[in-house]
Structures are given as structure tokens and as C-alpha cells.
Specification:
It is built from two helices and seven strands. A seven-stranded antiparallel beta sheet has the order 1-2-3-5-6-7-4. The chain is globular. The two termini are 28 Å apart.
Length: 153
């Protein structure tokens, strides 16, 4: 994939995400997705707030956004990119994790940070997608992983 597809969707807001993914509070972990280029790439946005349930126990004296939730945010972003890129997708589909590879956490994420999940397609086979994700705060990579997901009806 040497050449990127043109942007087909400028932004997917929370209302569209709710129509696209089956996830709900407290496990809907993205607020919007911007710059979707067909099923090739897109950027998920997560505004981290101290009011989130994870901060009750992670950690009360020094709140740090859990890395596993960032990986889930990457997968949800990839799910939105995949679902909105498939013609005729009107109803929510289940999105299941297949793989998590090459996962690294580089810096802690704190309340008040905005995480950008930069997702880029690695491979696709039918209803299965593999993406590389870089989670960034203020342009600095805080986590990265290769994630695989499968869409089902």
C-alpha cells in the first residue's frame, strides 16, 4: 500500500460511533474518529477525564490511564474505520479482538490528556482487519501495538 486513499470521511462523531459500535459506557473508549481514508487509516480521539471509572483504582493517589484501555481504544478506532468503510453497513456489528502484537507502553497518560489513536491498515482478509496503532499525546507516542479484529453480524 504505497499510496494512501483519499479521505472519505472527515469526522465520525460520538452519535455515529454509538450507531456503529456495540460498545457502551463504561467501555466505549473513543469520542470521535477523524480523517478516515477508506479502510486504510484514521485517527481515533479519546479525551481522558478524571471522572472515568478506571481511575477509582488505577491509581487513587496518582491517576494513570490503563494501557489496556488504550489498546481497546485502538481496536475500537480500527472497528469504526472498518465498519464505516464497508458499503451497506447500517446496523451495529460485533467487533472481536483477534490479536495484539508488538505492544509497547512508552509514557503514562493522565487525566486531562487527549489521546490520538493513529491507526494504519497492515492487512485485510474478508471480515478481518489488522492495524498498526500509535497512541499519541501532544504528538508524542505513548503506546503502540498491532491489533487484529473481526467483524460479525
Amino acid at each position: 500500500m504505497s499510496e494512501e486513499s483519499p479521505i472519505i470521511i472527515e469526522a465520525v462523531d460520538i452519535n455515529t460511533i454509538l450507531k456503529t459500535l456495540p460498545h457502551r459506557y463504561p467501555f466505549l473508549l473513543i469520542d470521535r474518529v477523524v480523517g478516515i481514508r477508506k479502510d486504510f487509516s484514521g485517527i481515533g480521539i479519546k479525551n481522558v477525564t478524571v471522572n472515568e471509572p478506571a481511575f477509582l483504582g488505577h491509581f487513587p493517589e496518582r491517576p494513570v490511564y490503563p494501557g489496556v484501555l488504550m489498546i481497546e481504544g485502538m481496536a475500537q478506532t480500527a472497528g469504526v474505520i472498518g465498519i464505516t468503510s464497508v458499503e451497506g453497513t447500517e446496523k451495529p456489528r460485533a467487533v472481536y479482538f483477534l490479536t495484539i502484537d508488538k505492544c509497547k507502553f512508552r509514557k503514562p497518560v493522565m487525566p486531562g490528556d487527549t489521546v490520538e489513536y493513529h491507526m494504519r491498515l497492515i492487512n485485510r482478509k474478508r471480515a478481518m482487519w489488522w492495524f498498526h496503532g500509535d497512541a499519541k499525546v501532544n504528538g508524542v507516542t505513548v503506546a503502540e501495538a498491532d491489533v487484529g479484529a473481526m467483524l460479525t453480524d
